[in-house]
Amino acid sequence: MEAAWDKVWQLFLKYKEVIMYLVFGGLTTLINIVAYAVCARAIGMNTMTANATALTISILFAYITNKLFVFESKTDTMKEAFREFFSFIVCRLGTGALDMLFMFVSVDVLRFYDVVMKILSNIIVIILNYVFSKLVVFAKK
Fold first, then answer.
1. Angle in degrees, 0-180, between the axes of helices 47-65 and 78-103, rounded to the nearest 10
2. Which of 33, 80, 104, 141 is the most exposed place for a label (fewest CB within 10 A)?
């Protein structure tokens, strides 16, 4: 039995970054969708305002969790920390713009169901965010 747990642990360590990204990416997505639903349904914001609010909340959560738990990034100077945060924000704003465009076209123009479109948009965004985070923001020096 112990050997099986050792194998599982070794597999976890081998794929830790991807596993942690999926866990925190899933939580970020959940936060994004719930924040959108609360803003759009409970508060009554229009699609774009609700989506922008949800993106802001989820981007901040994602930066903290990606830095600390996924990529375990260490920055030695304020300049490095600012560069990292700035590049993260720029990349997320890019995928956020894609999300906004997707939501505008699919919900406001084509009149598809908004929450389903939000989920589909998030699948695309999660994949792109991992690639950008891995290759640009938290790239090992």
1. 150
2. 141
Query: Measuring CA to CA, which residue among 47, 30, 136 is closest to residue 90?
Result: 136
Residue 89 · residue 67 · CB < 8 Å: no
Provide the 3-class DSSP secondary structure of residue 44: coil
- CB–CB of 75/137 below 8 Å? no
Domain chopping of the chain, boundaries: 2-137
In this prediction, residue 141 has a pLDDT band, given cuts at 50, 70 and 90, of low
- Count Cβ neighbours within 10 Å for each residue of 17-55 and write b for 16 or more, e otherwise: beebbeebbeebbebbbebbbebbeeeebebeebbbbbb
Between CA 36 and CA 50 the distance in angstroms is 5
